[in-house]
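thread: overnight batch results

M.L. [08:02]
morning all. the overnight job finished for the chain we discussed friday. pasting input first so we're all looking at the same thing
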Amino acid sequence: GVGRDWNWRPAVDVYETDDRELVITAELPGVDREDVSVTLENGMLTIAGERKLDDAVDQQRWYRSERAHGTFRRAFAVPENVDLGEVTAEHKAGTLLVRLPLKEEAKPHHITVNAA
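M.L. [08:03]
and the structure it wrote out:
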């Protein structure tokens, strides 16, 4: 709904390489590839998704639950000159890695998250 609270905020690194490539990595341990979406629109890259609580454990039997779960969403302004046709996203060992080569102007584009 409107003004909804996201349950957690995964840690994210954003940096540019010597090859004029913007790299965004997000720590998403326990998040399935199918539960992550990456979108790039109007100069904003959005990473959203959900980490589900382990259904195998009865709610009454938890002693402690420190690992955040539920929905998350992180959005970042990216340069207008991202080369959309060359953007890649892969999910490996609990980390999402998005590469955005810099080139021309940005248009809305949905990025498929591939298994590494």
